[in-house]
């Protein structure tokens, strides 16, 4: 089956500097694919290119069989940015219902999205009064409410406690099992182990595009954080030799 996302030779310049240097990768359908890498390595930029809001300097990005950013993809792709995108003067439920309407969905889907992110108990609370972690989950509910085929989540678990993080990852896998494709960025290496596939990016270049098991096998270490350090250091010594 065709991949949900197919990126070929993607080049992006931001602020007069090259931040993606010809990246090629794919996100298979129905998987949770993790996008990991150090701060500033280009994760958000790659996600922006996938959702079609990033000016690109070269290469191609195809999403669900169409060029990224096509009008036809508007309801088929959900995007959670790092900055919560919800209205502070509406309640959690009102926000979810508003975004549901934009996606052609109803109240039942809105309420389910709120429950799915663990906010049923705060559904009638104004978003402006929520904690940071709750606000980010309210934003996640709004990104998921339209049940998009591809979900792009920029650090969705930041600020969440371990129990909520585990719940959210279980939710992501349930969505993937039902056919949704998820591209999820994270700084937290223990989350890498929860992904079906991993894209490791460093300084705008792809260092690994594989399963966690293959990354472990290639590096000879079990701990993915250590494995990533080896891949990165291996890349550095190649670059200087
Ligand atoms: N609006 C912008 N203008 C100029 N440069 C930018 C802009 N946004 C990001 N950059 C630069 O592009 C590079 C990649 O940034 P990006 O946000 O994609 O990294 P990231 O891996 O998502 O980082 P983080 O994990 O800290 O969110 C960085 O060097 C950053 O400084």
Automatic annotation (TrEMBL):
GO terms for molecular function: ATP binding; ATP hydrolysis activity. InterPro entries: AAA+_ATPase, ABC_transporter-like_ATP-bd, ABC_transporter-like_CS, P-loop_NTPase. Residues 5-228 form the ABC transporter domain. Gene3D superfamilies: P-loop containing nucleotide triphosphate hydrolases (3.40.50.300). Keywords: ATP-binding, Nucleotide-binding. Pfam families: ABC_tran. PANTHER family: ABC TRANSPORTER G FAMILY MEMBER 20 ISOFORM X1, ATP-BINDING CASSETTE, SUB-FAMILY H, MEMBER 1. This is ABC-2 type transport system ATP-binding protein. It comes from Micromonospora humi.
């Amino acid at each position: 089956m065709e991949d949900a996302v197919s990126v070929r030779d993607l080049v992006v310049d931001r602020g007069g500097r090259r931040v993606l240097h010809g990246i090629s990768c794919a996100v298979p359908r129905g998987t949770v694919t993790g996008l990991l890498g150090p701060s500033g390595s280009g994760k958000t930029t790659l996600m922006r290119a996938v959702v079609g809001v990033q000016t690109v300097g070269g290469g191609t990005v195809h999403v669900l069989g169409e060029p990224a950013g096509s009008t036809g993809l508007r309801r088929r792709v959900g995007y959670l940015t790092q900055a919560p995108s919800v209205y502070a003067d509406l309640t959690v439920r009102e926000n979810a219902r508003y975004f549901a309407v934009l996606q052609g969905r109803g109240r039942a889907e809105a309420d389910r999205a709120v429950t799915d992110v663990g906010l049923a108990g705060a559904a009638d609370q104004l978003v402006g009064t929520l904690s940071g972690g709750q606000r980010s989950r309210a934003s996640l509910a709004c990104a998921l409410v339209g049940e998009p085929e591809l979900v792009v989540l920029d650090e969705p678990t930041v600020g969440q406690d371990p129990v909520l993080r585990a719940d959210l990852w279980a939710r992501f896998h349930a969505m993937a099992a039902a056919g949704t494709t998820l591209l999820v960025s994270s700084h937290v290496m223990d989350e890498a182990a929860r992904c079906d596939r991993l894209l490791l990016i460093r300084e705008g270049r792809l260092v690994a595009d594989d399963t966690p098991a293959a990354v472990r096998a290639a590096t000879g270490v079990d701990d993915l954080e250590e494995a990533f350090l080896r891949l990165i250091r291996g890349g550095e010594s190649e670059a200087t030799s």
